[in-house]
Structure of CSN7A protein:
Amino acid sequence: AEAANLPPLTEAQKNKLRHLSVVTLAAKIKVTALALLRTFFHWDGLELVNSMFPQCIPYSVLLEQLQLKNVRQLEDLVIEAVYADVLRGSLDQRNQRLEVDYSIGRDIRREELSTITRTLQEWCQGCEVVLSGIEEQVSRANQHKEQQLALKQQIESEVANLKKTIKVTTAAAAAATSQDPEQHLTELREPAPGTNQRQASKKTSKAKGLRGSAKIWSKSN
């Protein structure tokens, strides 16, 4: 009754509606396959659905839903939809079916809201898991940084204490000999002034003794 009050559709308008009908059929097949995976296998994901359950629509269903008379009209309609970027797929003439790889989206229906809500909730949960993992890694990195900083401060403190100990020990030794600490360190590093002369005189005396012995031995011969 309502159709009688509407103006007649042109052939282009009818084809556009048929294109959208093909998109609707493809979406129904995807939703059904996704529901089966969730119910029986507890799997999820559109990529898994596309790989395990390709969106195949039999020619018989398309002919009935689109109100077409023969397969030639159906294939021409599908080719037009592909060129219009409404869907992407292939015609399986041997098995008499349309395999849909991609199709545009349709307006959201009320009965689809629960599925969309559940999908978004699952996505949010996945994001929370990833965020929790990142925060844990950041916490570990900060803890490692604090440990390295504490170790560095400990080493610097030990080095400073060691320097103080050496300085105090040197000052105490210098005070015991009533000398300046720096002068005391210099004397510890360098030999006494007469040491080299005594060593040189000892070497000279030893050499003279050897020469005298040599002369006595030669005279006896």
